[in-house]
Structure formats: C-alpha cells, structure tokens
Amino acid sequence: MHEIGILRQLVRTVEAFAAENGVSDIREVVVDCGELSLVIPEYLEELYPVAAKGSLLQDAKLTIRMVPGLAECDDCDEIFNVIEHKGYCPNCGSFEKTVLSGREFSVREIVVPDEGALARGASGQPDP
Ligand SMILES: [Zn+2]
Q1: How far is CA 92 from CA 34, 63, 68, 80, in A?
Q2: pLDDT-derived band at 87, boundaries 50, 70, 90
Q3: Which residues make up the environment of ion ligand 1, defined by Cβ < 5 Å?
C-alpha cells in the first residue's frame, strides 16, 4: 500500500503551492487519479485524514476524479478502455497498444475559501 506516500507527497505539493501563492487556507483539493495508476481511491480517502493531519490540508476536502485508462491499438488504431477490455483490443484482439491516458496521479485543482486570495497570489507582484 503506497497510497500514504502518495498522499504525503500531495500534502507537500499543495503546501509548496500555498506558500508560493500566499494562501493560508485551503478548502478543497481535486486530484486526477488514473485508472491505470495503481492508486486505489478508497485507500486515498481512508488515509487522507492521516496524511493531512497537522498540515494545511487538515480541514480541506479531498475530491478524487477518476481518469479512464484509454489506449490506442498498435495494430488497428482502435481506441478502447484498457480495464474494461482487460488490455486486449476489442476490435482485433491485439494486446499491443499505446496507453493514452489513465496513468497519471496529479493535483488538478486547489480550491481556496477566498478565491480572490488565490488570484492575487497567482498574478503576484512584478518583483520576486
Ligand atoms: Zn486492434
């Protein structure tokens, strides 16, 4: 179970973002979780409070968006859902494919209570 490590990394990523943008309160974090990423969303939800405890994310909600695992068949160019078809092309039966999406696990959105704060931070001052 590597989800706790992934969540700790997520907390670090968001805290770094918050520090850079002068954000001190985060309401929600939206993550993209690929079907093929081997990250189990149930574990993420279960372990999130543990990973978030004492961090900036302690009171923030975690929203997981599943990204379908899509691949293109190398033999006939059919695009199909890898999990649904157990890795085999439903058109020609080939196992040779190029994965197009679904391997990622990444932060998609960070929602702050005062949207203006994020906008101010993001546009920033002209000087570093
Ligand atoms: Zn095919």
Answers
A1: 25, 37, 21, 11
A2: very high
A3: 73, 75-76, 78, 89, 91-92, 94
